[in-house]
Specification:
12 helices; mainly alpha; 296 residues; globular
Length: 296
């Protein structure tokens, strides 16, 4: 069992990221339809749940704290919104004038990689701005209110903030004329990456920490105190964080629930509906919790 657990720690990230993206590419290229992506996502969530219990980073993070159904609600609403936006893509492309420069002659994996790199830039910059500007932070705070990190709550976001991030990442793609199948694969890739980024599996990522924005790095971003948690903003890679000077990693640092949440709002609402309403309750206290420059 010890050997198996050590093997899981090393292979979990490449197996999940590489394996599921390869399966998604095969499903779409093989004409299995977009429903296959949903099946693959549910399978990835199931594997994540199982391995978080077999090889947990923090065993207590696997325990329900009255937040599991809330996270299910967030994930359901946000993934339905993602699917709907992909379904509406042909209409959006027809309405919005673009440049029709998408490289449709590239192999599908190359088109997906290009989409990820472009979307990643926009999403990361919106994320960074959300730690600077009070209005954006109020909506982003929903995601930072978590007191435990496990794969499923990577999908926990206020729907309006997710919409803003999505616009930031996809507007250039729409203008370029991204095909529907590549947009669907991109949405799938983002969901898998969020699952990995918030995973409670005790992974060993080695040199991957210099390239990919995975859970050992992302836990630093969820530190509950301003400035200290204003690091590691990247969704897929660490490139932007290295450019912005916000890349942080310490192999000796361990995290518990005491390190997570919003330090100045320890009683942030836990319920789903309460979290949807909270950003609209403008207050000096809420704005004072904004990390980075806006809090100064």
């Amino acid at each position: 069992m010890f050997v198996l657990k050590e093997l899981i720690k090393v292979t979990y990230v490449p197996s999940m990221l590489g394996g599921f993206l390869a399966a998604a590419l095969y499903a779409i290229a093989g004409g299995y339809g977009y429903g296959a992506l949903l099946v693959l996502l549910l399978l990835a969530i199931g594997i994540s749940f199982a391995l978080e219990r077999l090889v947990p980073y923090e065993r207590q993070w696997n325990q329900d704290r009255g937040d599991s159904w809330r996270d299910v609600a967030h994930a359901f609403v946000n993934e339905v919104a993602n699917a709907s936006s992909v379904a509406l893509l042909p209409l959006i492309v027809a309405i919005v004038p673009g440049f029709d420069v998408w490289p449709t002659d590239w192999p599908m994996w190359g088109q997906l990689l290009l989409a990820i790199l472009i979307a990643y830039c926009g999403i990361t910059l919106v994320h960074y701005a959300s730690h600077i500007y009070p209005t954006l932070w109020r909506f982003h705070a929903v995601h930072h209110s978590v007191k435990r990190m496990y794969g499923f709550n990577g999908l926990m976001k206020h729907p309006l903030h997710q919409a803003i991030e999505t616009l930031g990442g996809t507007c250039p793609l729409i203008l370029m004329g991204i095909p529907l199948n590549i947009a669907a694969l991109l949405a799938f890739a983002v969901a898998i990456q969020l699952l990995l980024q918030h995973s409670n599996v005790d992974v060993k990522i080695g040199p991957l920490r210099y390239v990919l924005a995975l859970s050992p790095l992302h836990r630093f971003h969820h530190i509950k105190w301003p400035v200290e948690g204003d690091v590691n903003f990247g969704l897929f890679t660490t490139i932007w964080d290295r450019m912005l000077g916000t890349a942080v990693y310490d192999t000796e640092r361990r995290f518990s629930s005491n390190d997570l949440g919003i330090g100045k709002e320890p009683d942030y609402p836990v319920g789903y509906l309460a979290q949807l309403i909270q950003p609209f309750k403008a207050s000096s206290e809420t704005e004072a919790t904004v990390p980075n420059q806006a809090a100064k």
